[in-house]
Write a structure and sequence with these properties.
The complex is a heterodimer.
Chain A (H helix, E strand, L loop, with lengths): L1 H15 L2 H23 L11 H32 L3 H4 L5 H27 L10 H25 L3 H17 L12 H7 L3 H14 L6 H25 L6
Helix pairs in contact in A: 1-5, 2-3, 2-5, 3-5, 3-6, 3-7, 3-9, 5-6, 5-10, 6-9, 6-10, 9-10
Chain B lengths: L15 E5 L6 H9 L10 E2 L2 E2 L4 H6 L1 E4 L11 H11 L6 H10 L15 H13 L5 E5 L7 H16 L3 E5 L3 H7 L2 E6 L2 E7 H8 L2 E7 L11 E6 L2 E6 L2 H13 L4 E7 L3 H8 L4
Classes of the chains: A mainly alpha, B alpha/beta.
Chain lengths: 251, 283
């Protein structure tokens, strides 16, 4: 277990040493989204009955921060280590592929949740918010961060250059996050787009997380949790397979 | 492209073993296979009896590798780097040994300096320290003195030789042949992924490289017949390659009998560089 804890601590230290960039900056970005969208849309749109738009928006923004930062943590750490070559220190050590996986994903979860908590901590001062089912919110937060941390690992393993990773982030992660219902309810979409949204696993994470706050969601939270858990399981198996074979890590 | 082909060798416990060969000969690939950074298509490698694939945890815990490239993690200080490295090997509270290693490598004054701020030579020292934090019985040094100043080089060798005396097995690749000649008991020479020679340093020197006699005479001709092989001639200065010391005695006798006066004489011992050049076909 010492090997796991060491790699986990190293990954935590890595982002905490540059916390202005890795925690404070994404918190500020989310607050800017809240200010701009809240100002532009609030008063013109009510998604759930009795819930102001800004209140509706906050859990979505929190979850978006959690997901994006969990992805960014594992992917950027791994690609930096690959490019600078210091990944050899981990690869030459007796750390197992399971410990490697767990340490990177756990650190990604911590960063995702830290940024999410930061966004929440600032927004509760301005926006009225209740936590109707905190355990649901926690479950979706943990599983969502785990899933994105794992996707970040895959992106870091497969990428050999920063721009390959950026392409993964810009063409996969960003669209799936923005089209997951962070800023709207999918019930407001036309039928085709509503159906398409159900194929986006990010939708279940955001919708389920929002259920934790309002006790209302577009999709039954139990089913959403099952989708997210199944996605996490499948993606984890794939990642463990890549790590076990040493794909693009050991030549 | 095949980087290694048909390589079969065994390194005994406590040996100081050299892997020599020109660039691209396969030395670093072999080290990468031993360290688990590369996977061999066929064959097996064991470290102290542990297979590097099926028993990788045991094999890697007995191995300390100093990589050829100057790699480092810019987020951490020297001490943090060494603590993390200890932790990867399952060792907690390793500060006493870390301090000792830093002391031997003259790193104590830089313990809290960020890795980014260190010079190339200092970074090389940290790489050596990282390979030693878990006190591995087998230490692999891939070009450990490349780009390192003379002072550090001497200190480093003193430390490594001390580890070898304490029973650590040392495997070394170097481009400085005099280092291999000075330290290694046994040497494998690589060419195009194959071992072209594997023997004790002494035998390699004896087999492939004879002593060279540098002699200046009072005339421009050698008495015939004359033992050995004339390598070069510059007026009255001759360089003669001798197969053995017996030929030296014959040479001196022939000169005396021919009444040739010796103005200067020097016997140069066998040289690993010559062995290297002959075996790798670069001469």
């Amino acid at each position: 277990m010492t090997s796991f804890w060491t790699l986990f601590s190293k990954e935590l230290l890595r982002f905490l040493k540059v916390s202005v960039q890795t925690v404070a900056a994404p918190v500020l970005t989310s607050l800017l989204y809240l200010v701009i969208f809240g100002h532009a849309v609030a008063g013109r749109l009510q998604v759930y009955e009795g819930v102001p738009y800004t209140s509706f928006l906050v859990p979505g923004l929190v979850m978006m921060s959690v997901l994006q930062n969990a992805f960014a943590n594992s992917s950027s750490s791994l690609i930096q280590s690959k490019i600078t070559g210091n990944i050899v220190f981990v690869l030459m050590s007796p750390i197992s592929y399971l410990e490697f996986f767990s340490a990177y994903v756990a650190a990604a979860v911590v960063r995702g949740l830290a940024v999410g908590a930061g966004v929440l901590a600032f927004t509760v001062w301005f926006v009225e918010l209740k936590l109707e089912a905190p355990l649901w919110a926690l479950a979706f937060g943990l599983l969502g961060a785990g899933l994105l941390g794992t996707l970040g690992l895959i992106a870091g393993i497969c990428s050999e250059k920063i721009d390959q990773l950026a392409a993964f982030q810009n063409f996969v992660i960003m669209p799936l996050t923005f089209l997951s219902g962070v800023f709207y309810s999918i019930h407001s979409l036309p039928g085709f787009w509503q159906a398409l949204s159900h194929a986006n696993p990010f939708f279940y994470m955001v919708d389920g997380f929002r259920y934790g706050f309002f006790g209302v969601s577009d999709f039954p939270p139990g089913a959403s949790l099952a989708v997210v858990a199944a996605s996490f399981f499948v993606v984890s198996l794939l990642t463990l397979g890549l790590l076990k074979t040493g794909y693009k890590l050991r030549h | 492209m095949r980087a290694l082909a048909g390589v079969s060798l065994s390194i005994g416990e406590g040996e100081f073993f050299g892997l020599l060969g020109p660039n691209g000969a396969g030395k670093t690939t072999l080290i990468n296979v031993i360290a688990g950074l590369s996977r061999a298509d066929a064959g097996a490698v064991q470290v102290m009896g542990a297979d590097v694939v099926s028993e990788y945890r045991r094999a890697r815990s007995m191995l300390g590798v100093v990589p050829q490239e100057l790699v480092f993690d810019p987020f951490f200080s020297v001490r943090e780097t060494l603590r993390l490295q200890s932790g990867y090997y399952g060792i907690r509270r390793n500060d006493a040994w870390i301090d000792e290693v830093m002391h031997h490598l003259d790193l104590a004054g830089k313990a809290d300096a960020n890795m980014r701020s260190l010079s190339g030579g200092m970074k090389r020292r940290v790489l050596v320290a990282q390979a030693l934090v878990h006190k591995p019985p087998v230490i692999v040094l891939d070009e450990p003195t490349a780009g390192v100043d003379v002072e550090l080089r001497q200190g480093l060798w003193q430390f490594i030789r001390g580890l070898n005396r304490d029973g650590h097995t040392i495997v070394l690749t170097t481009h400085y042949l005099e280092e291999a000649e000075l330290h290694c008991n046994r040497i494998a020479m690589f060419k195009a992924g194959r071992v072209v020679a594997l023997d004790s340093t002494r035998n390699l020197l004896r087999m492939f490289s004879g002593s060279q006699l540098r002699i200046r005479l009072d005339r421009e001709e050698l008495p015939a017949p004359f033992p050995g092989e004339v390598v070069s001639r510059d007026g009255t200065l001759f360089r003669i390659k001798l197969g053995n010391y017996g030929e030296l005695e014959t040479a001196l006798t022939r000169l005396r009998e021919a009444k040739v006066r010796i103005l200067e004489i020097e016997l140069q011992p066998p040289d690993l560089e010559e062995v290297f050049l002959r075996l790798t076909g670069q001469s």
